[in-house]
Design goal:
The complex is a heterodimer of chains A (180) and B (452). By secondary structure, chain A is α+β, with helices and mostly antiparallel strands. Chain A has a single domain (6-178), classed as Sandwich (Jelly Rolls), CATH 2.60.120. Helices cover 17% and strands 60% of the residues of chain A. In chain A, strands 1, 2, 3, 4, 5, 6 and 7 form a seven-stranded antiparallel sheet that branches. Chain B has helices at 2-16, 28-32, 69-75, 89-97, 176-183; strands at 62-66, 103-106, 115-120, 123-127, 140-147, 151-155, 158-174, 193-219, 236-263, 274-286, 294-307, 310-335, 340-355, 359-368, 371-379, 384-394, 397-405, 411-421, 424-433, 442-451. The radius of gyration of chain B is 26 Å and the shape is globular. Chain B has five helices and 20 strands. In chain B, 37% of the residues are buried. Chain B has an 18-stranded antiparallel sheet that branches. Chain B has a two-stranded antiparallel ribbon with strand order 3-4. Classes of the chains: A alpha+beta (180), B mainly beta (452). The interface between A and B is large, with 35 and 48 residues. Strand 1 of chain A pairs parallel with strand 3 of chain B.
């Protein structure tokens, strides 16, 4: 990671040349193991109206050095997921967590995003949201490593609940100002 | 540490581009004529040593700049505090390129705008927005030969002078791939090398010079009794000058460096997704250190011919100038596998002869009554500039205009006027230039006193 992006180290320098912003858009999804983007859930049987699935927890390599010479002015996150629900029905939430790399697990932090969904049997449900101004997100994205986690919470109304969840978009946009 | 490094790199980046400035003309009379040089306009740098033998004419013998730009600078200057929200290193670089001695009438628009970076595991796109303007299409070439100050004494046709001489040259070249990525926001791709090459040289010496300038040929005209000035009396005269010089080398250093980053199959896969390479060779000698002083010789030579009020001058400065050094050569190589630099001594006390590049000035001028038409070409190591201008006197009032092709190969325009009070004149000139980090056209007002 020490030598991740020497070219990118130039960027905060250039941002320093004037009163302007560095707008960093990171396609976090592309850095994730493809196998972790999709998860089969269920079958959740009757008797478990509330269930929580931790889809993944992963370590991301980000831009080393950016945080040293810049300060975050704002951060936002775009998330999209698709549920191919084969059976059952439920409402629920997609929770996204970010934490510093030295954390044991990302799930101990407050989620930066909470995307509600409603699943019906035999239907594909797409959900998405845009989250603005998340200080926690801004903090971790300017370090060279971060933990990211995704958790699903189901509140079942028809059982068994079964299907596949696929994360289709996870893009962070951080606006940074020089701090030379 | 990172902040200090950042500021140092910033200043270096911007300072490296300072070579775009090729001398700010403070003589408003010369500037009003497009910066043209003749034997009686703007030859204060001694571009043609034969001019020393030409009698002073009515055209003036010197100028004193009036630094009105300082007033403007004191009332409105860039912030030097990097924590200030208005801090802009490009504005500071432009102050260096344009010392605030003239009044800036118009400046290029400030480098501003947000920089956008899109980053994915196998994609990186950098849009520098306005900063693209400061990344040149070709190599960034800086430097020149500088004869700084010095003292001298004339003994009739002969003269002696001692002064420092500094030669600096640097050429920084981005690889096509890196230039495209930074200038045109072309996405970075896998298995591609993004490289930089730098070739730099600096040397300093003290010049001990003895010269002689004389009239070698003369054919009198009927008007010569009225005026001894060969520029305007219609006589035919050839003036020659030569000044050999002994050069005592104080320090020499050069660097040839290439470095780059080669991306892998996927831009950001694994812990070390890129391969770094750097290979630098340095050669140096310095008084009081390794190699000690250098010794060498050189010369300035020139000739100027007058024929029916037409002037043709050719001056060669630092003609054949070179210095012999005893140098140390080192090589520094970066090993990507071990993440370490290794330095080896390639040679010690190796004889090396450096060259001081010649500067050639060719000028022509024609005086018709009280009107002067003039043009010149100045060819140096890094750039060739051309100037052309005219001066028309109406009583004690002069009107001037001119054009020139500057160091950035842009046409610039100038105009001005002056009023003469006996032995002193006041001159004003307005001229465009591209002496700025953006290499875009600006305009300045210059003022000076002329000595007649």
């Amino acid at each position: 990671m020490r030598r991740l992006i020497p070219i990118a180290l130039l960027l905060p320098l250039l941002v320093g040349c004037g009163n302007r912003n560095l707008i960093l858009t990171v396609d976090i999804l592309s850095f994730m193991d493809p196998a972790t983007r999709s998860v089969d859930y269920g079958p959740i049987p009757p008797g478990f109206p509330n269930d929580t699935i931790e889809v993944f927890s992963d370590s991301l390599n980000l831009l080393q050095g950016v945080g040293d010479v810049t300060r975050v002015a704002s951060a936002s996150l775009d998330i999209a997921a698709s549920f191919d629900n084969t059976s059952g029905a439920a409402t629920g939430d997609v929770l996204i967590y970010f934490a510093a790399a030295d954390s044991a697990t990302p799930f101990t932090t407050t989620p930066v995003a909470d995307v509600p969904f409603q699943l019906l049997p035999g239907q594909i449900t797409n959900v998405s949201t845009h989250i603005d101004a998340s200080p926690a997100l801004a903090e971790v994205l300017t370090h060279d490593r971060a933990l990211v986690g995704l958790r699903l919470i189901f509140n079942g109304t028809s059982f068994p609940i079964q299907g596949t969840e696929t994360l289709t978009k996870l893009t962070a946009t951080v606006v940074m100002k020089k701090d030379l | 540490m990172m902040k200090a490094t950042s500021i140092a790199v910033l200043i270096a980046l911007c300072g490296l581009q300072a070579g775009t400035a090729a001398g700010q003309a403070l003589d408003a009379r010369r500037l009003g004529m497009g910066g043209v040089l003749t034997s009686d306009v703007g030859d204060h740098a001694g571009s043609n040593i034969a001019f020393r033998a030409v009698p002073k004419g009515t055209g003036g013998s010197g100028s004193i700049p009036l630094p009105l730009g300082l007033i403007q600078y004191l009332s409105d200057h860039p912030s030097y505090d990097s924590k200030d929200s208005t801090f802009n290193i490009y504005e500071i670089a432009n102050v260096i390129l344009n010392p605030p001695l003239t009044i800036q009438l118009s400046k290029p628009s400030e480098v501003s705008g947000d920089i956008s970076v899109y980053l994915a595991q196998d994609s990186l796109r950098v849009d520098l927005a306005d900063v693209k303007r400061v990344i040149p299409k070709n190599s960034m070439m800086q430097g020149g030969v500088y004869h700084i100050g010095g003292i001298g004494k004339s003994f009739g046709k002969m003269f002696l002078q001692v002064g420092p001489l500094v030669h600096v040259k640097n050429a920084l070249t981005l690889s096509d791939q890196l230039r495209d990525a930074l200038r045109d926001a072309v996405p970075f791709t896998g298995n591609t090398r993004y490289g930089v090459t730098d070739e730099g040289r600096a040397q300093a010496a003290i010049s001990f010079q003895a010269g002689y300038a004389l009239r070698a040929l003369h054919k009198a005209s009927t008007q010569e009794g009225d005026s001894p000035d060969p520029r305007r009396n219609g006589s035919t005269a050839l003036y020659l000058g030569a000044a050999p010089k002994y050069l005592l080398g104080i320090a020499y250093g050069d660097v040839h460096s290439t470095g780059g980053v080669t991306t892998g199959d996927t831009l950001f896969a694994g812990s070390n997704p890129v391969t770094l390479d750097m290979d630098t060779e340095t050669r140096y000698a310095v008084v009081g250190g390794e190699g000690g002083t250098g010794t060498g010789f050189g010369s300035d030579v020139g000739a100027v011919l007058y024929y029916r009020n037409f002037e043709l001058g050719v001056g060669l400065n630092d003609f054949g100038s070179q210095i012999k050094w005893s140098t140390t050569v080192r090589r520094h190589i970066y090993d990507n596998a071990t993440n370490q630099f290794t330095t080896s001594v390639v040679a010690r006390d190796e004889e090396f002869t450096s060259r001081i590049p010649v500067t050639t000035t060719v000028n022509v001028a024609k005086r018709i009554g009280r009107t002067t038409l003039a043009a010149d070409i100045v060819d140096g190591e890094l750039r060739t500039t051309m100037h052309a201008g005219a001066e028309l006197w109406f009583g004690m009032f002069a009107l001037r205009s001119g054009v020139y092709r500057d160091q950035n190969k842009m046409m610039q325009f100038a105009g001005g006027g002056g009023y003469r009070f006996g032995k002193i004149g006041v001159d004003l000139a307005i001229a465009s230039n591209s002496r700025n980090i953006e290499r875009e056209r600006g305009a300045e007002l210059s003022a000076s006193l002329s000595l007649y």
